[in-house]
Amino acid sequence: MDLIAQTEIRCPHCGQTFPLEVDTSEGEQILVEDCSICCRPMTLTIRSEPGTVLDVTISDEVS
């Protein structure tokens, strides 16, 4: 089983959508990721199970 899954996320700053590869071997993770379009940071809370992204919550605040 491939534990890397791809999902689409929308930047809370510029509104553009871009792909993100997620390691689904962990059930929940919090990441700070830069938008691939405008380069501004965002905080992602990702819930997954092996091979599948269940939910992504995106915040424009960086913790």
Model description:
By secondary structure, this protein is an all-beta fold. It has one domain. The protein has strands at residues 4-10, 17-23, 28-34, 41-49, 52-59. Strand 3 and strand 4 (41-49) form a beta hairpin. It is globular. The model has no long low-confidence stretch (mean pLDDT 95).
Throw out a few tags for this protein.
single chain, 60% strand, 3-stranded antiparallel sheet, globular, mainly beta, 63 residues
**Contiguous runs where pLDDT drops below 50 for at least 5 residues:** none
Number of separate structural domains? 1
H and E order: EEEEE
Q: What percent of residues are in strands?
A: over 45%
Helical segment count: 0
**Overall 3D form:** globular
Question: Within the largest sheet, what's the order of strands?
Answer: 3-4-5
Largest sheet: 3 strands, antiparallel
Structural class: mainly beta
CA-atom Rg in angstroms: 11 Å
DSSP summary, beta strand count: 5
- Averaged pLDDT, please? 95
End-to-end span in angstroms?
32 Å
Overall helicity = under 10%
